[in-house]
Write a structure and sequence with these properties.
The chain is of the alpha+beta class. The chain is built from 11 helices and 11 strands. The strands form 2 sheets. It has a 6-stranded mixed β-sheet with strand order 7-9-6-10-8-11. A hairpin with a 6-residue loop joins strand 1 and strand 2. The chain is globular, with a radius of gyration of 20 Å. It starts with 7 loop residues before the first helix and ends in a 12-residue tail after the last helix. The relative contact order is 0.15. It catalyses: hydrogenselenide + ATP + H2O = selenophosphate + AMP + phosphate + 2 H(+). InterPro entries: PurM-like_C_dom, PurM-like_C_sf, PurM-like_N, PurM-like_N_sf, SPS/SelD.
Length: 366
């Protein structure tokens, strides 16, 4: 669990016995709980998350919810999940016909994403509530070499992000198309067609599993990682920086953002704060600390694998966004970061970039 949600006291009381067991341990504050088990030097790694719907397609919403839960395991470099549970709240405001149409699609999307991740949904809980809520629990039993503790960053490391930012902006802008008073704020900087493309890109990006990146974390000797979700890029970067054993700071120079979302954020004043790094993301990418000599190779392989799968962004896969330097365990974005406009898959700009003979998978830190 990566939210400070008031469960700390109960967790502290319950951990008294667990503290006697040897092995790596991670509690409240980061993406997943790592709990040493009584037998065989194994650890239980577990996470839970849930939220409200944010796209209009119930099947895709189910996939996004599942990807968001699994992402907490992937942030630990874990590529396998032993079991998932689904948490579902059905709105009491929905009539029976709508429930019978919408909820099975949401469940199917969640299950399909779980199967894509090599796991299955074996149970869960469904309740009636004023709001639709969807989420779940992911659990895996690991040997120590199967996960990467998020505390090993060293000065000289490079920060890499594996999905573009701007999902919240894209989802809101899409809703504003039919709300003239809000659309008028942004119509001078973006067209309706561009907003629809950005919304589609955000939806597919959120539904993409971070499993490929988790596997490459081992191949390229990642030192630490987290996933970028509700606290935004800067919030999660700060959280990760505080977790480090060494006295380091994260400095972010580049912001890969779904095309036109930076312009919308600027036009809306302080509503999103996308360029300040505090705009919420849902099922965002992994923020990974990599050795400098490995970062470009990580980005290149991410691009090749994601393009081949038609998945994680038609143009990109991963971007170098900053550096790790000696410091006081905090993160910051420089005053004028470089904005990397990431064109939505299927757009003319994306097709042009994909056809380039020598794409640059890893923009230089400037």
């Amino acid at each position: 669990p990566d939210r400070a949600d008031g469960t700390g006291k109960a967790g502290d009381q319950a951990s008294e016995f667990g503290q006697q067991l040897p092995g790596p341990r991670l509690g409240i504050g980061m993406d997943s709980a790592v709990i040493p088990l009584r037998h065989g030097g194994l650890s239980l790694v577990q996470t839970t998350d849930f939220f409200y719907p944010l796209v209009e397609d119930p099947y895709m919403m189910g996939r996004i919810a599942c990807a968001n839960v699994l992402s907490d395991l992937y942030a630990m470099g874990i590529t396998e999940c032993d079991n998932m549970l689904m948490l579902l709240s059905v709105s009491q405001k929905m009539n029976e016909k709508d429930r019978e149409r919408v909820m099975p699609l949401m469940i199917r999307g969640f299950r399909d994403a779980a199967e894509e991740g090599g796991t299955s949904v074996t149970g869960g809980q469904t309740v009636i509530n004023p709001w639709i809520i969807v989420g779940g629990v992911a659990s895996v039993v690991c040997q120590p070499n199967e996960f990467i503790m998020p505390d090993g960053a060293v000065p000289g490391d490079v920060l890499v992000l594996t999905k573009p930012l701007g999902t919240r902006v894209a989802v809101n802008a899409y809703l504003w198309i039919d709300q003239p008073e809000k659309w008028n704020k942004i119509k001078l900087v973006v067209t309706k067609e561009e907003v629809i493309e950005a919304y589609q890109e955000a939806m597919f990006s959120m539904a993409t599993l971070n499993r490929t990146a988790a596997g490459l974390m081992h191949k390229y000797q990642a030192h630490a990682a987290t996933d970028v979700t509700g606290f935004g890029l800067l919030g999660h970067a700060n959280n990760l920086a505080r977790q480090q054993q060494n006295e380091v700071a994260f400095v972010i120079h580049n912001l890969p953002i779904i095309a036109k979302m930076a312009a919308i954020s600027k036009a809306c004043g302080n509503l999103f704060n996308l360029l300040q790094g505090t705009s919420a993301e849902t099922s965002g990418g992994l923020l990974v600390c990599l050795p400098r000599e490995q970062a470009a190779k990580f980005c290149s392989e991410m691009k090749n694998l994601s393009s081949g799968a038609g998945g994680q962004g038609a143009v990109g896969g991963a971007w170098i966004i900053g550096i790790v330097e000696k410091g006081d365990r905090h993160a910051r974005i420089i005053d004028k970061p470089r904005i990397i406009e990431v064109p939505p898959r299927g757009s003319q700009a994306a097709n042009q970039e994909n056809s380039s003979t020598s794409p640059d998978p890893s923009p230089n830190v400037s």
